[in-house]
């Protein structure tokens, strides 16, 4: 038995001291082919330093062997010695039999550094040199998948499946194609692949993508089933809760939807979007107190979330809490990104509080954005008439009659106003 084999046997038995002795003897006495095999075994077992020493010894003896350079670079990368690894890979010439493999190892290194364009260049060069090599096609497809360039990834995965390779490096390519199609927005094609996978064989991410795809196709029952399964097995998968809520709302199961969102908040209470969506469902079940509670919680987590600000302001206006609305929006007045809906809400609030100058200012600010909305235009007509601003009133009235031509009262008012102009 070679010292190398003794070393591996002692490792298997957990006899580390004996392993060290046998490993040292292997370095001194075993032939180079045996040492090469030992280096591969040790690398696969995670003994990077020991594997590295062997490759360095062999490379010193055979400096022309580029396979050794690439193997050593692999070890160095795993040991976070990237600069040393790149130096070795750059020494592999383009006419070397190991050049394609050096490109793939370099691409993997650049990908881990998130230098995706450089990684892509390396893989495209490798693919040009070895167009029929499945490992390169798979590596490039995976890179595009990570880059979210799904339209580029899909043909590569499909080509591998056509070659009779449904799985590569323990990656299910049917799953990959389904998820890629889903992320590319091609839901019909996605579900054709995803539904081939048994629910019990799905990873949490694939189960989520499959449920999400059913949701986009408005096939709510299987979406709910898969989201429920995911919730049972991984309740901390917080992304599922708003989408499960959405599917339940679509099935008119509002109480169940609210319960699901409340479960989600129990898992992730610092997600303002979850509070906001829970507030939406509370509003759908006409629980205004709960709606306000959820919106205030979301607002406390992110005061700059304008969607929540608008919803809370809308609620105050609906409840005729006009002073509360004015007080609430004080910190937002004057911001460059203030939503026009808040101008409208302030105009309504100030008008009802009989603060007409302020109301006039915000009606003027809101008007350009709502010239096609009857709910804004009709109150604006009466407001500007009361303020004696006939030109602005007439402009609002003309817009309103255009939007609601069958409102006889307003059409008559417009006819009278236009008659007075002659």
Automatic annotation (TrEMBL):
Query: Which lineage do the record's taxonomy fields give for this organism?
Result: Bacteria, Bacillati, Bacillota, Bacilli, Lactobacillales
**Chaperone: present as a keyword of the record?**
no
Q: Where are the TPR repeats?
A: 204-237, 238-271
Protein name (record): Uncharacterized protein
Q: Does the keyword Chaperone apply?
A: no
State the UniProt keywords alphabetically.
TPR repeat
Q: What SMART domains has UniProt attached to this entry?
A: TPR
Task: Please give the Pfam families that the UniProt record associates with this protein.
Answer: TPR_16 (PF13432), TPR_19 (PF14559), TPR_8 (PF13181)
């Amino acid at each position: 038995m070679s010292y190398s084999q003794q070393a591996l046997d002692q490792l298997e038995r957990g006899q580390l001291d004996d392993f060290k002795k046998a490993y040292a003897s292997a370095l001194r006495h075993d032939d180079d082919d045996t040492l090469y095999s030992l280096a591969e075994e040790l690398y696969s077992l995670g003994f990077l330093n020991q594997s590295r020493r062997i490759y360095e010894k062999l490379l010193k003896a055979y400096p022309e062997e580029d396979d050794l350079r690439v193997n050593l670079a692999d070890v160095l990368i795993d040991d976070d010695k990237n600069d040393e690894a790149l130096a070795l890979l750059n020494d592999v010439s383009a006419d070397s039999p190991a050049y394609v493999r050096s490109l793939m190892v370099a691409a993997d290194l650049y990908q881990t550094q998130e230098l995706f364009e450089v990684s892509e260049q390396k893989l495209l060069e490798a693919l040009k040199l070895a167009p029929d090599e499945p490992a390169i096609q798979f590596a490039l497809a995976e890179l595009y998948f990570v880059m979210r360039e799904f339209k580029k990834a899909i043909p590569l995965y499909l080509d591998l499946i056509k070659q009779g390779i449904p799985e590569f490096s323990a990656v299910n390519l049917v799953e990959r194609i389904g998820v890629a199609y889903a992320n590319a927005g091609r839901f019909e094609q996605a579900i054709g692949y995803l539904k081939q996978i048994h629910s019990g064989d799905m990873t949490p991410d694939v189960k989520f993508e499959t449920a999400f795809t059913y949701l986009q196709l408005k096939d709510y029952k299987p979406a709910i089933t898969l989201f429920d399964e995911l919730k049972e097995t991984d309740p901390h998968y917080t992304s599922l809760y708003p989408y499960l809520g959405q599917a339940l709302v679509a099935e008119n199961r509002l109480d169940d939807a609210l319960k699901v969102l409340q479960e989600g908040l129990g898992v992730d209470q610092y997600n303002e979007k979850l509070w906001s969506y829970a507030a939406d469902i509370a509003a759908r079940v006409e629980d205004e107190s709960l709606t306000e509670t959820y919106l205030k919680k979301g607002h406390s987590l992110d005061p700059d979330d304008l969607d929540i600000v608008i919803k809370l302001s809308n609620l105050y206006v609906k409840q005729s809490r006009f002073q509360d609305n004015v007080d609430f929006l004080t910190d937002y007045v004057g911001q460059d990104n203030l939503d026009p809906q808040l101008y409208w809400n302030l105009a309504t609030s100030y008008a009802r509080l009989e603060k007409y100058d302020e109301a006039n200012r915000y009606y003027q600010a809101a008007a350009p954005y709502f010239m096609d909305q009857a709910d804004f235009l009709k109150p604006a007509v009466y407001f500007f008439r009361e303020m004696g601003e006939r030109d602005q009133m007439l402009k609002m009235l003309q817009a309103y009659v255009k939007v609601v031509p069958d409102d006889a009262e307003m059409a008559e008012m417009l006819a009278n106003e236009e008659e007075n102009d002659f």
